Amino acid sequence: MTTQTLSSPPARPSFAELYTPKLVTVLREGYSLTNFRADFMAGLTVAIVALPLSMAIAIGSHATPAQGLYTSIVGGFLVALLGGSRFQIGGPAGAFIVLVATTVQQHGMDGLILATILSGLMLMAIGYLRLGTYIKFIPYPVTIGFTAGIAVTIFSGEIRHLLGLSFNGTEPGPLVEKIPFLWSNLSTFSPAAVGLSLASIAVLVALRIWRPRWPSMLIVVVLAAAATAFLKLPVDTIGTQFGGIPRTLPMPALPAWDLAKVQAVLPNAISFALLGAIESLLSAVVADSMTGRRHRSNCELVGQGVANIGAGLFGGICVTGTIARTATNVRAGAHGPVSGMMHSLFLLLFILVAAPLASYIPLAVLAAVLAVVCWNMIERNAFATLLRASRGDAAVLLATFGITLFRGLTEAIVIGFALGSVLFIHRMSQTTAIESHVPLVAEDMPDDGSRGAYDETSQQDPTVVIYRISGAFFFGAASSIGAVLERIGDQHRNLIIDFTAVPFVDSTGSRTIESLAHKAAQRGVGVYLTGLSAGVKKELAAQGVRPPLIRIAGTIEQALRQTQKERPTPAAPATIS
Q1: Alpha carbon distance 497, 410 (integer Å)
Q2: Where are the transmembrane segments (predicted)?
Q3: Residue 237: CB partners within 8 Å, gap ≥ 6?
Q4: How far apart are CA 342 and CA 392, in angstroms?
Q5: What SS3 class is residue 189?
Q6: Which of 25, 133, 225, 549 to pair with 211, CA 20 to 30 A apart?
Q7: pTM for the full model?
């Protein structure tokens, strides 16, 4: 005789299991010299990619190229050291350019650094509250829409450097004001800057097609800098605009702040935290899909939070997981987080040794790099597919895209998420149905001849009405189902509701049944619930849907037998006072 034991539910992960950095996990597995060589080469490869991008993104964000490098050095090191992903590469990201530039215009550089530090504290709080798993519920059309909107906005901000425009005053931020302003100053374009931009884009595209493994961005930046220096091209460079790059890291320091300043930058910090959480976890998911590994989402957010605080203290800008650099890290054969730490150390080495050479880098070539990044950010196939998929998805996509362009990223995410949620509720409500006059077989099984024949007498009882609900019984479907259930004829003395096909009931659905049961009791109608799962039964009981208000049976057939037993005999008819 064998005994069978019920398996206990899996134990809840401990705090240490949830928040142990992946670096610790990798070292526990055993870290060899071969692993270090793989991480060393991967870190060098990623640093070559990150060098021009960090400077270009910082300049596009109205910060200095040095701040972009500080962000990759300090923030990237802390992301690898404390994060929950084996392969995540942290640094400045193109998705933040619009938000960072807007913050600089509104609150100055001190306000930006303060908002970055506050966003780090928020990311840590999100991680420790274990909210990281909910970030994945951002609808796909929202993600595609705001990414495309960001790309267009970033490109519009690089038109000035692509064309070498010169003008007095400040370039407007909103797109509807920026385009007319740039058009009015189009006559100031620089032929040298235009030629350099077009040549850089052409070389970037050519290298991507014919030599995809080569560090195309670094090659283009080096060639453009050499051409500018030797040919003495009349274009703006990092040296002429920013005075070059310091050869050391600054000392950590807090920006000037007070309570009023914190309140002023708080909305910007919330935007940084929200976008940072989405971008970093999306990057970690991409790395997981490429490697078959699994990241720790909440640990990753804590690491991202510490990285933003660290970057802010060293004068950097927002840090997040970067999808392109993380994918490059994986393809380069990285073994673990040490590659991300090496990438930061290689960038630090560049500052210590080769910072003076950065003065010759023209802004036009960095704008060309960002233009190519923007083109790659727009997932054109996904955008077109969503437009064709359904009207609902297309509406969410276009609304998010338009609001990102003409209002702002925060509003786009919030409104897009709200529209996506409404669309989901509508679709879920359509999948929930109610069926009346349910045909019966013995034990309510399929009438295939193997489990009993069709019971005709059960359908001839005029005092019993049977309904079967299928699908999630939640607030989106409660009103329509409740209206059907309440249409009980006066001749019916018993109502049977079958929940066999109901996987989930929320409080609104439970209250619908509770209200129906009370009305039925006032009319002397008995209510039987059948096929309740443990979760559904618990939720109904929490709202008061329990005996003696209702009766519970395993199947419809069992409920019918109960109604027959409780039916009064002709010799003792029920009297109505």
Answers
A1: 45
A2: 40-61, 73-100, 112-131, 138-157, 189-210, 217-235, 269-289, 301-324, 344-373, 394-419, 465-485
A3: 225, 228, 359, 360, 361, 362, 363
A4: 45
A5: coil
A6: 225
A7: 0.75
* pLDDT tens per residue across span 93-143: 888 888 898 899 999 999 999 999 999 999 999 999 988 777 767 788 888
For residue 559, give the nearest of 512, 494, 504 by alpha carbon.
494
Cβ within 8 Å of residue 506, ≥6 positions away:
472, 473, 474, 475, 539
Q: What is the dihedral of CA 41, 352, 256, 128, to 10 degrees?
A: 20
Residue 114 tokens read as: 């303060």
Domain boundaries, the chain: 25-163+175-235+245-423, 433-566
Q: Which residues pair with 549 in a beta bridge?
A: none
Q: What is the 3-state secondary structure (H, E, C) of 482-499?
A: HHHHCCCCCCCCEEEEEE
Measured distance CA(475)–CA(542) in Å, rounded: 16
List the beta bridge partners of residue 57: none
Beta bridge partners of 470: 433, 501
3-state secondary structure of 196: helix
Tokens of 50: 């990150």
| Mean pLDDT of the chain, nearest integer | 85
Strands (E), 357-478: 433-436, 464-470
Are 296 and 96 a contacting pair, CB within 8 Å?
Answer: no
**CA 433-435-437 angle, 5° bins:** 175
CA distance 428 to 509: 14
Indicate the SS3 state at residue 469.
Answer: strand
- Taking CA 227 as the corner, what is the angle to CA 226 and CA 232, rounded to the nearest 5 degrees? 110
